[in-house]
Amino acid sequence: MQIRPAPSLDNFAVGDNAELVSVLRTMAETGSGPQFLYLWGETGVGCTHLLHAMDPLAGVERVPAFSESRLIYTVDDVEELGEDSQQKLFELMNDVRSHSDGGPFGQYRLITAGDLPPLQMKGRPDVISRLSWGLVFQVHPLTDEQKDAALRKLAEESRIDLPDDARQWMLEHLPRDMGTLSEALFEVERFALGASKKITRTLLRQCFPPRNTAVREESAPKMVTD
To answer: Which residue, 30, 133, 205, 219, is most buried by CB atoms nearer than 10 A?
Structure first.
C-alpha cells in the first residue's frame, strides 16, 4: 500500500511560486527571514501544504498559544476565524512581535494563510492590519502543463505506474488542483491494489464514477483539496 508522503517544501509543486518557496526554505534552514508571513490563494493552491511543511504542529490547534519553546506558529483559513479565535490570533501576533529579538530557543515566527489578501478580508481591523506586518505572498495556481508535470513526478516518486492516458483522464475529469489530484492518485492506487489491476482509464472511471466527475467543480470526489 502506498502512503502519501508528508507535506514538505521538496514535494511542493512550485510552479510560479519560486520566490515564496525560497523564502520559506531560508526560514526553515537558517532561521532567518521575515518574522511574519501571510499566504493567500484560492482553494487547492497549496497554502495548507506549505503550513504543514513549515510547522510539524500545524493544525493541531486552530490558533496555538505562544510558548517560548516553540519557534514557528501557523494559522490556516484566517478568514473563517470566529471572535474567540480572532482574539487568540491577536494575542499570538503580539506575543510573537514582542519576542522579535528571539529567545533561548531562537527566532519566533508566525505564518498565516487565507483565501484573500488582507485589504479584502473582513474581520477585526486590528487582526487584519497585523497580517501585513511581514511579507504577503499570493500562492499562484499551477498552469495545466505544470499540473501535468507535477502529477507525473508525484507518481514516479511514489512508484505508482500511471500511464500517460490515465494521467490525462485525471486532468480532464477531476478537479485540477494539486490537492485533489494528489489524493486521487493515491485513492486510485489503493483501488487498483484492491482489485489486483493496473491503473487504466477504465479503472479510473470505476474508481471515480460519472456521478462524481460529470460536473468537475460541483461533483468532485470528497477529498482534501489543500
So the answer is: 133
Reading the block at residue 210, the C-alpha cell is 460519472
Which triple of cell numbers denotes residue 88? Answer: 487568540
What is the distance between the alpha carbons of residues 197 and 220, in angstroms, rounded to a whole number? Answer: 24
The DSSP code for 155 is H
Residue pair 17/114 in contact (Cβ under 8 Å)? The answer is no
Report CA torsion sign: 7, 8, 9, 11: negative
Distance from chain centroid for Cα 18:
15
Pairing of strands 36-40, 72-75: unpaired
Q: pLDDT in tens for each of the 226 residues of the chain? A: 556 788 999 999 999 999 999 999 999 998 888 999 999 999 889 999 999 999 999 999 999 999 988 999 999 999 999 999 999 999 999 999 998 776 665 689 999 999 999 999 998 999 999 999 999 999 999 999 999 999 999 999 899 999 999 999 999 999 988 888 999 999 999 999 999 999 999 999 999 997 643 334 433 444 443 4
Q: What's the predicted TM-score (pTM) here?
A: 0.83
Q: Strand 109-114 vs strand 72-75: parallel, antiparallel, or unpaired? A: parallel
